[in-house]
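Hi W.,

Here's what went into the run:
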Amino acid sequence: MDPVLEIRGLTTRFATPEGEVVAADGVELEIAPGESLAVVGESGSGKSQVFLAVMGLLAANGRSTGSIRYRGREILGLPPRELDRIRGARIAMIFQDPSTALNPYLTIGRQLGEVLEVHKGARPAEARARALAMLARVGIPEPARRLDQYPHELSGGMRQRVMIAMALLAEPDLLIADEPTTSLDVTIQAQILHLIASVRRELGTAIALVTHDLGVVAGLCDRVLVLYAGRVVEMGPTDALFATPLHPYTRGLLRATPRLSDPLEVPLEAIPGQPPDLRRLPPGCPFAERCPEVVERCRLEQPLLRAAGPGRRVACHRAALP
Amino acid sequence: MAVLAPPRERPIEEGGQAGRSLWQEARRRLLRNRAALAALILLALVALLALLAPWLSPHAYDEVYWDRIAAPPDFANAHWFGTDGNGRDLFVRTLYGARVSLAVGIVATFVSLVIGVSWGAIAGYFGGRVDALMMRTVDVLYSLPFMFFVIVLVVVFGRNILLVFLALGAVEWLTMARIVRGQTLSIKRKEFVEAARAAGVRPLAIVRRHVVPNLSGPVVVYVTLTVPHVILVESFLSFLGLGVQEPLTSWGVLIAEGAGQMESAPWMLIFPASFLAVTLFCFNFLGDGLRDALDPKDR
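Here's what came out:
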């Protein structure tokens, strides 16, 4: 079956006064129908930019090259009007901060209705009924009352549920969740993640979860893709990748994730150094400066993504291959 | 077969309290602000007086009493504000002046609101070349000397109250467009605009449904500042003799006439000037109150 989303050699550049910034460099990924993929990386690794490029939402100074296919159809470079038939309808996106992602001047009902009016040509009464059903579906108590409320009257977790409801209204094949839980309380985070998991289970919607939190990934996603400085450094099934991380950066990330079982006296291990300046990437591996296993070759030659076991790929000269 | 429960006609009211909109919230805060509330009441009073002018006094605004020229306030003849230099009742003339001044203020502000908001929002939202072209047009129009513009209009078309509306509207929207564009630049970077784009909403629909409502705070405040400004400029034009035609009058005309005779007949200056001053103060207090009431930081 065609993947819902297939990205090949996606490179995203931003022209800035200080020079060109490469936010994504030859990114490759695919998401099968109903699958959930986590895209992991630290701030500035380009993980959000990849999906903003998919949605055609890059900032005005951004340019993408490569290929982005939705069910086999090229969507990179589509004119906005044609892209409008896919984004929101076939591919939906939810954002990091639900407090700013809702228009403070419109009621919840009107904002939900907008999606149906744009994509399904629904009449207001019909849109309202479906919005009501969807609010109930995402676990919002008293949905009828919420429809007439304004975003500022809802809590953060409730707003994120509204965002998810809005994203699901047009029955998309793929839901892109860009750090959906970052701005929420820990207990609410768990609820939202459960909701996303149940959406996928029951509606068969594929999920692309962008996050920097590996704990979130473990419970929710089938596969993980690790980005560093705009490049894919490792990808593979979640269990295998967590059990035997192949790239030193992935290992560093896993070690830097706090666990409740750790004794308090032991300081959390951090990856030394800073991510490289995206305006002046080194010729070799972008992680070389911070890598504990660096050798001369790493600084000279950029490692390519190569197969490393079932469903796994890694971009590291030093990775032991099976 | 069991009898089905009758379907509910409409969703039951749950919890009682319906959503309170930002506007209701803002109105509540505005009404708690004493200065703004007093300003609102006074403005309503002035507007009511202006509307009811013909029925409030036994005199007509253009009726000349040859025996009472520049007479001081006189309750026996119902000249509560006295009469002007042509023997016309000043009370009625002040209220008719209020009609013209308020009408000019409101119409010109409305024109500037419509043009300014659409111009600024479109320029700001679309950005790039569209923005540059639209805002440079504004800059060019800004640089035209206003008085020169008005004098040319008057010379070409003669003195006409419509011209005053036109000239004021044509100038006032420029500032509105600049303010709106600035606000739009910050709003279009908000996530809900990005969310709407991600949902496939067309650009003009985004401007209409997501950008413009969010402009309402600063725009409403600026409107309350524009109305007094327009009234002031109209007074100034009329003071110079470029505004309304006799026997119709405006506060500016009355003040100009009163200023010429302030030593012999001070009431001819005091009454229209107090009306103008009170109205301007009220609009400014109202704008101040609205700014506080609509401030998102207090939400």
